[in-house]
């Protein structure tokens, strides 16, 4: 049918444009953040592209949902602005008749979004966590940015290392500032290297000196050494059972009775249901006055998208804190939005029939 083919082609074109624009924005932000992590020594510079790919795959479900929503709103809004909607309505096609071509175009997108959200994104999160941990546990100085001051995790130590040496894994001109309540120490050495002892990372220093200041007793001590080992950072080895919920598989979340895991499962399922509801809701939100064309409808639709996805994020916390059951959270948020979307479609279809008698009655 001419109606189905023309409308679906318009939807596909707008979806493609929206997807490219949104993906470019997300990847640019992810690239900046990944480069910042690499500069701070939290990501291996050699793994920047891999980390960028993982970040892009993690954010792709949200990008697909937003691109689909924008495609529906912009396509239907264009029909109103160009007065094509008046032609279709005059031919006896109600607004709810547009639901079928929208779903035909959206189901491959929703299927891909579900696969990404339920299986691919958890895998990328797990790989990202393991990649960072592998880099944290490297037994050399390659993770320490040369020429930069870096602090330990607890903030009690500040390190400065130059790594321009001929010996791999060895740095030179090491500086360590250690601060404790009432005490401060400065350690310098000509050479240093990282060593691991269990789950703790140590810095082995050679040919240096250490100065200690006790501010409470006003004492100062200085000592020279040929070899000295100081703890650089305490690590906690993470097992598979200690992975964050977002890095766990969907089947693992389903089998787990932990409320935090159930909350993450509700969030993943809610993302898929949210994309479907938004595709339907976009039909009702796209209506505009062709005599006063503006972009307020699109801005209102984006505001609805933000509020809806914030509610999806809140459902994870509700279930994790055992304030609601998973089924109750899904029904309360997504059931309400689905009812609102269908009710808005019916309201748009029946608006002329409900209010057409008002002018005639006023004239009488």
TrEMBL record:
Keywords: Cell inner membrane, Cell membrane, Membrane, Transmembrane, Transmembrane helix, Transport
Origin species: Inhella proteolytica
Bilayer-crossing regions: 15-36, 48-73, 105-124, 265-284, 296-315, 327-347
Protein's membrane topology: Multi-pass membrane protein
InterPro entries in the cross-refs: LptF, LptG/LptF_permease
Domain of life where this protein originates: Bacteria
Entry's Gene Ontology cellular component terms: ATP-binding cassette (ABC) transporter complex
Location (main, coarse): membrane
GO biological process: one example: transmembrane transport
Location(s), subcellular: Cell inner membrane
The protein's name in its UniProt record: Lipopolysaccharide export system permease protein LptF
């Amino acid at each position: 049918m001419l109606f189905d083919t023309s409308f679906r082609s318009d939807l596909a074109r707008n979806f493609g444009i929206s997807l490219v624009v949104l993906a470019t924005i997300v990847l640019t932000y992810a690239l900046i953040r990944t480069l910042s992590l690499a500069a701070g020594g939290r990501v291996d510079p050699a793994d920047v592209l891999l980390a960028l790919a993982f970040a892009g795959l993690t954010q792709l479900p949200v990008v697909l949902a937003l691109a689909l929503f924008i495609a529906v709103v912009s396509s239907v809004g264009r029909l109103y602005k160009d007065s094509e909607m008046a032609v279709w309505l005059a031919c006896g096609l109600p607004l709810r008749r547009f639901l079928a071509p929208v779903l035909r175009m959206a189901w491959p997108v929703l299927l891909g979004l579900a696969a990404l959200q339920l299986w691919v994104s958890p895998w990328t999160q797990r790989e990202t966590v393991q990649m960072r941990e592998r880099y944290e546990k490297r037994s050399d100085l390659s993770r320490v940015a040369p020429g930069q001051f870096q602090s330990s995790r607890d903030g009690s130590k500040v390190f400065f290392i130059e790594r321009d040496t001929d010996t791999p894994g060895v740095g030179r001109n090491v500086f360590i500032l250690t601060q404790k309540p009432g005490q401060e120490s400065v350690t310098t050495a000509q050479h240093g290297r990282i060593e691991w002892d269990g789950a703790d990372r140590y810095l082995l220093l050679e040919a240096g000196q250490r100065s200690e200041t006790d501010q409470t007793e006003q004492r100062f001590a200085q000592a020279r050494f040929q070899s000295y080992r100081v703890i650089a950072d305490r690590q906690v080895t993470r097992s598979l059972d200690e992975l964050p919920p977002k890095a766990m598989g969907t089947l693992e979340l389903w089998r787990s009775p932990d409320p935090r895991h159930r909350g993450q499962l509700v969030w993943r399922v809610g993302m898929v249901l949210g994309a479907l509801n938004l595709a339907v809701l976009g039909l009702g939100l796209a209506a505009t006055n062709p005599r006063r064309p503006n972009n307020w409808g699109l801005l209102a639709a984006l505001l609805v998208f933000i509020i809806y996805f914030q509610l999806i994020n809140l459902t994870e916390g509700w279930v994790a804190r055992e304030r609601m059951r998973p089924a109750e959270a899904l029904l309360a948020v997504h059931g309400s939005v689905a009812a609102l979307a269908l009710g808005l479609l019916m309201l748009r279809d029946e608006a002329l029939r409900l209010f057409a008698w008002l002018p005639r009655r006023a004239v009488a």
